[in-house]
Amino acid sequence: MMLVVLIDLCLFCLLCSVVRAAPILAPDLRNCNRTLYHVPTYAAQLECCAPQWDQPPIDFRFDESVSRSPLRVRRPVHRLDAEFVEKLNRGYELMKALPPEDPRSFYQQANIHCAYCDESYIQSNGKPFQAHESWLFFPFHRWYLYFHERILARLLQDDSFALPFWNYDHPDGATFPRIFMDYPALNNSFRDVAHLFPHIVSFRRCKNLSICRKPTREENIQTMHRVMIIGSKTPSLFLGKSYRFGDDRMPGGGLPEMIIHNNVHLWIGDHKRKWREDMGTYYSSGRDPIFYAHHASLDRLWVEWKIIEGHKDYEDPDFLDSEFAFYNENAELIKVKVRDSLNETKLGYAYEKVENLWLLGRPSSLTKGMVPKAAEISRFCKAGDLLQQQCSVFVPRHVRATPSDVEEILVIQGIQVMQWDRPAGFDIFINLPHGDACEMLNCTEYVGSFTSVPQTSHAHGGTGRTLRLGIGVVIEELQLSNERSLLVTVAPMSVSEYSPVTLWTEMVIEYEDVHPGLASI
Prior knowledge:
4-stranded antiparallel β-sheet, globular, disordered N terminus, 11 helices, single chain
């Protein structure tokens, strides 16, 4: 009898492991939706699908010569010399001169983001392929830039060529890069002219996208500290939630995507155009050359995050075996896996060292542990209500000594963006019922933001989305560890430029292991 039970248990465990093996697979290029929904007439003729490849994609293999060659070094834009800038401009001239049907052309390179990120590709189960707001975000964009860089290197006949990164997390690189205005192949017509050089990039959204109060370098450093240190203690909080074959799209993005990535896209996009093209929407953002410097910066932040003690990638096989397909410098279709992207030096490149001032950019508290009374709250949030003004809610939590290897996470589910052709957003504060989205993002009580980039694929409907915020450090610094509930305040962006947002479910607090299973590289 005992033997039968053990056999049944083993079979059950085997079945569980088989069911769990469900990574997202590389799309079949033939299964691509060629229709962009509800785009303006000036984009109606755009086709995002890649050129067809009439044979199985080639499996990626590491270049053995990489280990014998110097690493290609990606340098910060603000440190580039004139010779390199000329080369970069020439590379994009050559890429833009390729015929549009060539998968290496700038037209096709830009369309990669449209196809993968505005849901043109359809998986074999009929669900769209989405590279944003999940654990695919960082590895997808790393592979995207890798092949983009290798194509430019081939066109320039310079194997040492490496893309630059926009070092906006450092005060010296915080302004819009002048070279992307002064050089023709790096320029773009559709940008918000109010945010170009010498304006400092903004990592936050204000109540008016075009006339928000100018951010300071200090505020940006504090935001970076929150994104890289305070709020990203676990893989899911930095990289994003798991996304497997059969799952609904966008299960939850990591903090760098939701705050830094999305806000920089919206900050550059032209607010006078319907979808904030080019950078302000997924289908067109790859058409602006600044896109690649922006994502090189995010890729560098992934490298820097893993240098910080205790930060590691997922070890989950479904993460490691997720796939994409890209055309290489020989116009061959290559199938890649996430596992081969985790160490950038194996791909032959590294980042020039710069000082990370945000390591010590800790914000300060406004409340000093004072717990607000219910009478101080002007309006309570209710599930299903439209977020038109600031509201607060008490969220229950466990009163216990939380181990250092467990993170406390505020989870906001059922976020419904009502108009997908507009940006949307709200900021979250703890213990601060009168937190203001424009003025108070440099305090400990501010724990993060939901920011949504317009997407044509959702113009015909969308599902509820999730925001997850690590709050363990904030709880400790505000001396709230013994509180049975937390006062959470939502400060929405409610002016006409933003879509209305509805929260359909109650907020909850979850607990997650800091090291749920880690990847070795």
